[in-house]
Amino acid sequence: MEVFDLAAWTVLAVDDEPDSLEVLCEALELHDATVTGVIGGQAAIAALEKLRPTLILTDISMPEIDGYRLLRAIRKMPDLKDVPVIALTAHAMKGDRDLIMAAGFSGYITKPLRLDTLVQKILENVPLLKPTS
Predict the structure, then answer these.
(1) What is the pLDDT of residues 112-132, one digit of tens each?
(2) d(CA 45, CA 111)
(3) What class, spelled out in words, does domain 13-95+102-125 have in CATH?
(4) Which candidate, 37, 87, 103, 119, has a CA 20 to 30 Å from the CA of 113?
(5) pLDDT tens, position by position, 13-71
(6) CB-based burial of residue 75 (10 Å sphere; 0-12 exposed, 13-18 middle, 19+ buried)?
(7) DSSP code of 81?
(8) Could you tell me the residue ranges of all domains in the chain?
(9) Sequence-distant (≥ 6) Cβ neighbours of residue 77 within 8 angstroms
(10) What is the pTM of this model?
(11) Taking each helix axis from N to C terminus, what angle separates 118-125 and 18-29, rounded to the nearest 10 degrees?
């Protein structure tokens, strides 16, 4: 597994499944990213009142506020309208990626997450985040 220096990253990770959230946070922390993990869209909106992340990773299928509604809320926040938001989802059927990207997400990564390729997939979706050597 390639190790990246992500010390400059502040990440908001959002999922309604605690085990998935824990794995995601730990995977990014292994690369020295600062990660705030929250359960669900409502908690994400509350966290974004204070947090100014470099990147937001969110599940799509969540109760109450799903990933689509969360993205719309984020895009209405002036300080966050340009922050990359990547969808993490088990929706991997034909056409799902197109729907997610058409909704305005910066990227699309399917679950289950592979820890050995997670950061590489993030960088493929948002090349501007690539750390400098």
Answers:
(1) 888 889 999 999 999 989 886
(2) 23
(3) alpha beta
(4) 103
(5) 999 999 999 999 999 999 999 999 999 999 999 999 999 999 999 999 999 999 999 99
(6) middle
(7) T
(8) 13-95+102-125
(9) 48
(10) 0.94
(11) 80
